[in-house]
Amino acid sequence: MTRPRWAAATAATLALTLTGCGAHVSSSSEKNDGSAAVTIDNCGQKVTYDKRPERVVTNDVGITEIMFALGLEDRMAGFVMPDDKGELSGVPWRDGYEKVTWLSKKEITKEVALDARADLVFAGWNYGFGEDNGVTPDALRELGIASYVLTESCRNGRGNARGIVPPLEALYTDLTNLGKLFGVEDRAARLIADFRKQVADVRAKAPRGADRPTVFLYDSGQDKPYTSGRFAAPHDIITMAGGDHIMRDLGDSWTAVGWESVVERDPDVIVINDYGDTSAEQKKKFLLSYPPLAGVSAIKHRRIFVLDYVDLVESPRNPAAIAALAAYLRTVKR
């Protein structure tokens, strides 16, 4: 997910006419035994990869950690990621960061992919892909580089709006697809089973009905808050943790809203997305001092919870984030 300063893509280009790395749109499917082609459904398009990628370049932290969680470090040429995504040395997949080259701390470019001799770029719309920077699946195809689009970021046909499946299903879809593409289906299945169980255990303890606290996700922005609709990871993180996501009616992933809608919906809790040039403490200070929010329940009772960026974008850390938020929400009395 990109902040407002990283301009949103401006045209709906869902068709993945991929030919790089032997990838192309196809209506047939073949079993991948290590050399045969494999066809997967990516953003509603059947895409066939004629060989298993060997030099993958990923963009952003959640996408990179999906590859690490699947044990695919040896299939990676490197990753692109700003250095504002928190401390990485203590994360579950820290070995991956030690093994794989950090190619750039800026946005991905065609030059970065070419210099890395990438045969596949794993990114997403507004997570590296965008017409504004010239990095799209079609543009990469012309360079002989295949693409895989993060499912959370799939455009849904309503302008630039993103999201076609519930957020956790997007994670499970990508794990399944990449497991098939790289021949690690068993590992992908185990991850998904473990994640589903972890989430189910949390939901069993979560508040229900009228006891569910209402929650607003604050990413950034002062004139207008940047937040999550129902197709970004925070929606499932909030709801499965036992909260009521106040922006669930937004048919998008990440988007801006007006402060008046936040005030009107009066959240019991505000979750801060911790990343970027503005620290979580600075964001909290702004929220607590912003006059229009003074009457909001979360501000009056100082109920503000912080999660890291990688917890709140599609990533293998989503289930742990659900557990962490759930523990906090169980302390909130309405």
What is the secondary structure topology, with strand pairs?
Blueprint: E1 23-25, E2 38-42, E3 45-49, E4 56-59, H1 61-69, E5 76-80, H2 94-99, E6 102-104, H3 110-115, E7 120-125, E8 128-129, H4 137-142, E9 146-149, H5 167-182, H6 185-205, E10 214-218, E11 226-228, H7 233-240, E12 244-245, E13 254-256, H8 259-265, E14 269-274, H9 280-289, H10 297-300, E15 304-308, H11 309-312, H12 318-329
Parallel strand pairs: 4-5, 4-7, 5-6, 7-8, 7-9, 10-12, 10-14, 14-15
Antiparallel strand pairs: 1-3, 2-3, 11-13
Helix pairs in contact: 5-6, 6-12, 7-12
State the main characteristics.
Rossmann fold, alpha/beta, 334 residues, single chain, 6-stranded parallel β-sheet
Give your account of this protein's structure.
The protein has 12 helices and 15 strands. It has about 325 residues and is of the alpha/beta class.
Helix content: 25-40%
Structure classification: alpha/beta
Secondary structure tally: strands: 15
User: Termini separation (Å)?
Assistant: 32 Å
The CATH first-level class of the largest domain comes to Alpha Beta
Approximate strand percentage: 15-25%
Q: Examine the coordinates and then state which fold CATH places here, giving the name of the CATH topology of the largest domain.
A: Rossmann fold
- The biggest beta sheet, please? 6 strands, parallel
Low-confidence stretches: 2-20, 25-32
**Total helix count?**
12
- Overall structural domain count: 2
Family: Belongs to the bacterial solute-binding protein 8 family.
InterPro entries: ABC_Transporter_SBP (IPR050902), ABC_transptr_periplasmic_BD (IPR002491)
Protein name: ABC transporter substrate-binding protein
Organism: Streptomyces ficellus
